[in-house]
Amino acid sequence: MNFFSNLFHINRYVILARVVIVLLILPLHEFAHGWVARKFGDDTAEAAGRLTINPIAHLDPFGSVLLLFTGFGWAKPVPINPARMRNPRQGVIWTSLAGPLSNLLAALVGIILLQVEVPFLNQHLDNVVLYGIYYFLQGFVSINISLAVFNLIPIPPLDGSKVLMMLLPYRQSMWMQQRQQMLSILLWILILTGILSTPLSWISGWIMKFFILITNWIGTLIQMVL
């Protein structure tokens, strides 16, 4: 992921998609963390007023502005207390995975809407509104998949690191926990230098292809009906 790759190559449809991500999907991502934690017995997020999709409760000003301009950003992390969970190991794993999974679910919904819309677009190639919807959905799907993949990187403070620490033996897990600040700096270096760009793009591309593959029948069916 090149930190500045999309800064000067955005259009109004992509901006609109990013606004929706900031106001709806980032809050949904954090809500998913809190909701799953609550299912495992941890009501910390609920007590803090974070078990909601109200964007005001979740948005980080800097992370939101950054996402609008670059497609990369974040919300305020939902507070989680593993000690309050019935099964802390499983609870942390599933709570951490809940956010990225919510992004993938949102992306899948976007792909389904694209499959519904494309047959109509093919029949009305001069329809500006349909083109606008198409570009908006493309941006929406792409950003959601990118956010999911990025958050699954096993480097603190990302969700993937929490999953990894729960899966590692005790000594290795403690090593990661004690060096979270150092590893976070390493993450920023990887982001700013663009080293992550190729592997993340490759993984995101394969997820996109998979979603298109499993939903192709929708577009085909609608094309047959039209």
In DSSP terms, counting alpha (H) and pi (I) runs of 4 or more, how many helices? 10
H/E element string? HHHHHHHHHH
Major sheet details: none
**Sheet/helix structural class:** mainly alpha
Shape: globular
Please give the radius of gyration in angstroms: 19 Å
The helicity comes to over 70%
**Unreliable spans:** 1-8
Strand content: under 5%
Q: Kindly state the number of beta strands.
A: 0
Q: Termini distance?
A: 40 Å
Total of domains: 1
Chain-averaged pLDDT: 92
Give a brief outline of the structure.
With about 230 residues, the protein is an all-alpha fold.
Overview of the structural elements:
The protein has one domain (12-225). The chain has 10 helices and no strands. The chain is 74% helix and 0% strand. The protein has helices spanning 12-39, 44-47, 55-58, 61-70, 88-123, 128-151, 159-167, 170-178, 180-193, 197-225. The protein is an all-alpha fold. Helix 1 (12-39) packs antiparallel against helix 5 (88-123).
